[in-house]
Amino acid sequence: GEDVEQSLFLSVREGDSSVINCTYTDSSSTYLYWYKQEPGAGLQLLTYIFSNMDMKQDQRLTVLLNKKDKHLSLRIADTQTGDSAIYFCAEGGGKLIFGQGTELSVKP
Amino acid sequence: DSGVTQTPKHLITATGQRVTLRCSPRSGDLSVYWYQQSLDQGLQFLIQYYNGEERAKGNILERFSAQQFPDLHSELNLSSLELGDSALYFCASSVAGDGTEAFFGQGTRLTVV
Fold it and tell me: In chain A, which residue's Cα lies nearest the Cα of B34?
């Protein structure tokens, strides 16, 4: 069945790069997404990648997709304290299947 | 601000009651999705409507129902509420029915006591 897995926690120092990883099972997904959720807030769409792409860069964000291994990653360059949040990986078209979320903690 | 509006932001109600959650999609978006976020289940897809018609159904209980009106706003009705229904309910909208660039509202936090 459809499943998306993420590690639950990541802690980095301000200014370092953060890499959040995700594995998924549905190889038919057309798009893969990264969402950010800050405390008490909704889900903010950060970026998404089309399944026939290997990489997408958007300012400080880089998404890498390894379709063979069904592995998706989100790299945040020069991580700031304002990046502290929960990051969700999702796959699907129409209904989205979300991972459990990775809580990113950025220490000054 | 995503442009998706959900009301109310908070709702406290008793077991056995019925509530209605409302969602106004972004201007121009035809598709509306409902999700439930709870600590034990995470984010679960409930149901999708596209231009007034049900498009996809997920883990939605029979006690729950939804509809999308001609003006494209949507309502999620939850009845015979149980303590376990306490969760954050999100609405999302997108232009197309394939979920591309789905934007989420701030959610309605439902507490059943």
Answer: A95
